[in-house]
Amino acid sequence: MSMGDRTQISETGRSAAGLLRLAGRTSWPYLLLLPTVALLFAFTLYPLLQGLWMSLFRRGLVVVPQVPESIPVFVGFDNYLKLFADKDFVLSLVRTVLFVVVAVPVQLAASLGLALLLAPQTRFNAVMRTIVFFPSMISGLIIGVIWAWLFARNSGLVNYGLSLLGIPAVPWLEQDQLAQAAVVVAWVWGGAGFNMMILIAGLTAIPKDLYEAAAIDGTSRWRRFTRITLPLLEPSVVVVVVLGVIGAFQVYEIVVSLTTGGPGRATVFLVQNIYDTAFRKPNQAGLAAAQSGVLFVILMVLTILQLRVARRRG
Amino acid sequence: MTLLRSPGRLVAMVAVLILFVLPPLWLLLSALKPQAEIFQWPPSLWPEHITLENFQKTVSRANFGRYFLNSAIVSVSSALLSVAMSVAAGYALAKFRFKGDTIIFLLIMSAVMVPLQIVLIPVFLVLRDLGLLNTLWGLIIAPAATPSGVFLMRQYIVGIPDSLLEAARIDGTPEWRILLRIIVPLALPAIGTLLAFNLVWRWNDYLWPFLIINQQEQWTVQLAIANSIGRFSINWPRLLSMTVLSVLPMLVIFIALQKTLMNGLMAGASKE
Question: CA quadruple A145, A250, B121, B150: dihedral positive or negative?
């Protein structure tokens, strides 16, 4: 039923008030959408286009007439070409990709283990799920603080635990690879409960009679897992992996409080590198925008992938 | 009890408990220790002298009350604004056919692909041009439009029968009253879920305040925490107590709305 039909039914008919109401009704949905559309335009869509446009210029973050280097100069795709010679960028990209490649599978394994352990609907499991989920309620910054305190060299619980086993103190946050491992641990810990819930939803959807039939046939537990659980859980696993990859490419907050990017630049990932380039280096805003452009393309491809998977899942 | 059915399961349960209870608990216990005991080696697992000294110092000397208040103002206002906007937009997309409706829907949803992380620089410039830098208004307004919120409300409102709206229209009820008197009361469960999510998101925001605020009186809790972490030295007694205090509101929300938050997630609210 269209708006016009409804107006004709209404008693006001075609009086002036009726016309006013008709105009009001036609514009009503637009009015309802205006605040959301305006804010998304101002803080998401326009900045995206503006950022891509900026990436074609050499310019300062803020244009200061007295500083010639800050005035925008069109350079085409120069910034993108420069990126590949920019050691800081290339290394942060490599680090980020490695982080994704390591952290996402580890998180999947952890979440899957938790899901299988805590899926049965008992009261005890409900409490356990709540506990495991809790880190999803706190910020990456706080997760970083929690683990920085655990990994502290001379007062941390982790090294205390190791000392009980006779292992000398490990400088967790002071060596490149150990610090990178610490970021992986904290990141996996922070997200495991969220992903566990996605996987539990998937597990609960698997029909019970499949397992019963397999049990009657005398199929081993391992075979039941690989032949029934895993294939039927695949859609949920894909969601966890894709969301994980998208999240891992943006890893930053957790690093702020855990390692502040150190030691050296060992845990500086893409987002921090973009920020440093734009706000810490003079007149490199174009270069930073180009880095954002690269990250955007990565995330866009992954999101489209996620949408296609979601559609296939129905 | 299934728990005791196999020893492997029991061991796994204990391991999970240790892994997920101990880290936050250790933080809390450490925050309750006097300064000397915090750094004592070997550490005391249970505080030998429980004290609130660190908390008192944080609140009195570090101006933490101010940051806490800022965070509270920002999260509550921004959450309310965001929910109001999402209800309005979700209602428009669920119950009206109009020129450009599909395009607007896709446009809103496509914003999911653009996290703040990749538009930091231009967003900073937009905030500056709008005069929102160094204002709490900036923190309230800038993150308020969320595609996931609009989507959640749209999905919920679609389920409200059209006949209710049509009956009201035949009676000559003005549109704004239909929204406030029919849609809002019927959508309350979804509104509650979205409000809870928004409170959590906004309380935990770090990147927005990081971008918008640099005057200390306007710091939020998360900014205060980030700023107390120096690259080479950390005031642990202060940081530990700040962290505990910053988590308390989330703990309260979580305990109160645990089911809503854990299941709302499944309803597609995702991580924003």
Answer: negative
Q: Which of A173, A19, A195 is nearest to A108 (CA)?
A: A195
Q: Do A40 and B41 touch (CB under 8 A)?
A: no
Residue in A closest to B239 by C-alpha: A145
Interatomic CA distance for residues A199 and B138, integer angstroms: 37
Q: What's chain A's Rg over C-alpha atoms?
A: 27
Mutate to test the interface with B, among A46, A58, A137, A165 (most CBs of B within 10 A): A137
Provide the CA B120 distance to its chain's centre, in angstroms. Answer: 20
Q: Among B18, B97, B117, which would you mutate to test the A interface (most chain A Cβ atoms within 10 Å of its Cβ)?
A: B117
Give the span between the Cα atoms of B133 and A184, in whole angstroms. Answer: 34
pLDDT surpasses 70 at B172:
yes
Collect all residues of chain B within an 8 Å Cβ-Cβ radius of residue A303. 112-113
**Using an 8 Å Cβ cutoff, are B91 and B150 in contact?**
no
Report CB contact under 8 Å: A37, B200: no
Q: What is the pLDDT of residues B194-219, one digit of tens each?
A: 999 999 999 999 999 999 998 999 99
Contact: B121, A9; criterion CB under 8 Å: no
Find the helix packing angle between B53-60 and B236-264, rounded to 10°. Answer: 90
Tokens found for residue B136: 């709490």
b/e map A64-91, b = 16+ CB within 10 Å:
eeeeeebeeeebeebbbebbeebeebee
Q: Are A249 and A270 in contact (CB under 8 A)?
A: yes
Give the three-class secondary structure for B33.
Answer: coil
Q: How confident is the model at residue A65 (pLDDT cuts 50, 70, 90)?
A: confident
Tokens of A34: 């205006």
- Report ipTM (2 d.p.): 0.90
Q: Which of B119, B251, B258 sits opposite A48 (nearest CB)?
A: B119
Helix axes A176-204, A123-133, angle to 10 degrees: 140
CB half-sphere exposure, A105, CA atoms < 13 A: 5
